[in-house]
Every structure is written in C-alpha cells, then in structure tokens.
Give the backbone structure.
Amino acid sequence: MHSCNTRMAKVAAVVLAGALALSGCGGGSTNTAKSGPAVSDTITAQVAYSSRDFNPLSTSMALPMSGNWHVTEALYTLQMSDYTLVSGLAAGDPETVSDTEYVITLRDGAKFSDGNAVTANDVKASFERVMAPGGVYAPMLDFIDSITVRSDNKVDFKLKYAFTLFKNRMALVHIVPASQTDEDLKKMPIGSGPWKYTEITDQQVKFDKNEHYNGEFPAQASHMVWNVNVDDTARVTAMQAGKSDVMENVPAKAFGTLKAAGSDIQTVGGFNQAFVMFNTRKKPFDDKRVRQAVFYAIDAESMIKNQLAGEANMVTSFVPESFKTYHQASNVYTYNPETAKKLLAEAGVTGPVKFTLYTTDHTWITQLAPQIKNNLDAIGFKVDIQSMKSSALFPTITDKDDADFSMVLAPGDPTVFGNDPDVLLNWWFGDTVWTRQRTFWNGSDGYGKLHELMDKAARSTGDEQQGYWNECFDLVSDELPMYPLFFRKMSTAVKKNAFGSYTPIGTTGLYFLNASLNG
C-alpha cells in the first residue's frame, strides 16, 4: 500500500479514474475541501448503458453504478484504475478492537448534498438495507455479524469470523440518508460525494457540483451531462461531431474515425466479458459435458479477431492473467469441435437439439451471436437467436421459477465492486438470483463444493487462501453454469486537450476525479 501522500499525488493526476475515490486518506484531523480553480464549464459524456434504477443499495447496472460513484460515498473506496484503496467517508483506518471487531469513525463535517449531516445511523441503516435477505450484495457481506452505533460519528462492526478483506469490502456499501425510501433512491439518490444529481431521464443524466462536499476531491466543474446512447453508431456520431468530451465503450471499428475527428483512444484490459449462461436444469444442459461441449464448439479466437478487431483476451481462468490472484484453470477451452462432438456423444445427446439463444441488445453482443449459432449448429444443435433489452430479458425470460430458456449470451463485469475473487465468485455463484433463478445451479453438488472452498478461502490468508481460490477457479471451469467467452478490453475516447490528463479504466462506466476542462 502506498503512503497517503504518494497515493494522493497519484490520484490528483487522474482525470478518468475508476470507482469511488471521492475523498482522501484521512488521519484523524478534519478534512477540508481543496481549493481548485473556479470552472463553470460542463463536462459532457456519451455513456453506453441505460437504466432508471439508481438505488445505490441494490443496483448493479453500469450506468447508475457509474453515476453513483460521483454522488454517493462508501466508507472506503477503490480506485478502479489500479484497485488501490482510499478513504471515502471514513477518517483514517478502522480501529482494530480484535480480529473480529472494528470501529470506524466518519469524516468530520461530512454532509449530504441536501445539507444534512452524515451520521453513524445513516451508515448502519445503509448496511442493514444492503444486507437484507435476498439483496444482490448480501452474500458479499455475510461475514458481518452485527453493526452498532457508538456515537454520532462512530460505527462498530462485529464479524462472524476474522476476514482479511474487511476494509476492502466496505467499498460495496454507499451511504445514503436513512430517511430516503427505496423508491426515492431508485429515482434520484442523495449522497455526500462531490456531485449531486439534478435530473435523470432515459436520455440524460445531469449533475451539479455538490457545494456541501468537504472531502479531498471536490468537483472541478460546475455541471456534467451524460447522454445515454446504447447504440454504438449514435455514440460515435456524437463524439465525431465534437459534441462530447468523453465517450465510453468505443467499438474497435470506430477507432480510426474518432482519432481522425480529434479524439485519443485508450484501451485497458480487465474482467469485462461476454458470458454464456445456462439453465442447468434444462436438458441437455443439465449435464456439464454438454455445457463443456458448447465452450469447445465456440471459436472465441476468431470472434476476438473478427468481431472485436483483436481488442480482447482469451480466457484461461475465471479471472484474467493480469490479476494478481490469477491461476490457470484445470479446463481451458480452445476451439475443438471434435472434442465437443465427443462430449455430446458421452452425454447421450443424439439428433439435433433445438433451442433459442437469448442475448442482450448491446451491439457488440448481438454481433457475436451469428458466429455462435454457426459454431453450435456445426456440432448438431439447431439455434435460433432472440435479442432483448437486459431490462426485459432477465425479468421475463430467466428470473422466474418456471423459466424454460436454455442459454443466454450477455455482458458482465462485477469488478465495479472490486477485483478480489471473493467478490467476483460471490457475484455470479453466491446465494443470489444468479444461482437461484438464472442458472438454477443453487443446491447442486457443484454449488455445494464451490461454497465449501469459498468459505475456507474467506477464513484463510496468504498462500492458503490463494490455494482455495485456485480450486474454485478449477471447479467453475469444470461445472460451467456460466463462464466468460473472452475478456474484452475497454476503450475510452477523450477529446484531445479537453482535460489536463486522464486515466482510462478497465471496467464499465466513466469516472471524473478532479476533472477540469482545459480553457
């Protein structure tokens, strides 16, 4: 871990950085806002994802997650550019009472954008709402036994067992006023970060500088406008016309066009992926050999070359090779249709298997579907393709007890929550909607074995912990209830000379830290 001064010097130079690095290192003294140049300009961005559910305590959609990074704060937050930890609402490190108890003190003078003080009760209420049964984040916080308010600015956390990632996991929960209802939070959450929402529609998200923010990284512009364009062509056209300062999710085929129009293009590797998800109770996909056959049948290397212009990395594990916790999985899937046919024969699959491949409507996802269909048809399947908005696909096709789908192709990237294996494994394979209703893998032998290993890893440290994670990676590569086809590089376009500097991130979303427009 860098020293506080070194870390802050690095952060101050970041314009487009990842995640929730909204306030400084803290050390017991009162944090006051840095004095920055008075800039009245508006930062304008083109964003690639849409959603109207901005509730920080439950949303996992790319657009609201990214917006909330600017508006709401966690106790400790991650810089997504390098996943180092910096303080958010907390003043300094947790006070260690024992290896299963910590006390966290809030930053002096912290206020929400409505002018009300942030209190320990807001922290307790936010955590308890996130940890409620059925919450999407709940499995990632199940090591917490109880939360107690010690005073207006001190919160006591008691753990069920010693958990070495306690401080990191605090980044999951954004603190909001206890008085805000779920419906309020969904429409327009109030936070203590450097920005505040002023308008959220299907077409735009608008922000103003939060005059009550007293952390280390105040907004350096007065306004931000994010234009929502899921369609790649619409985003490229707007960026090409000079109407935006930043654009996320640049399609590889537009690199030359946007460079010629005056943009810099930066690509960063990470965990972003297209994944294949199976209904593991639907025959013949209830047999893992059939799921393995699908992965051997898909020519991911050709997809990377042809549909993604090389802007992706092959999968050799559940996590990419760039992660420090990487371990090559026991099963690495390369294009081998003969192996796929052999596995289908071993599973007793005879004759054509007809099913619909459901996909989200993201352009880069729909462009993959025809090749996947062709690859699977070649080994004996008969595949139809149906593309839908995420907001329609999951509620109407997968998230119900009598779901009858077979296979889904969709994008995903839970590194918006952090990049340690405990978070990533829990997101897709924890006791959540993903295993209960999407893959229907919950309760299987493989699910039970994985959770035994995950529990052991959570209670371990060092090489022993890594060893258990390695076994987890091996297991999910064998069971394949869902698994990545490739790890896609994230590309960001930034208008030349718009900012003093910027650092692109390797996950979905944009983040503006001390971002001030030139001129």
Notes: Confidence is low (pLDDT under 50) at residues 1-40. The longest helix spans residues 462-479. The longest strand covers residues 144-151.
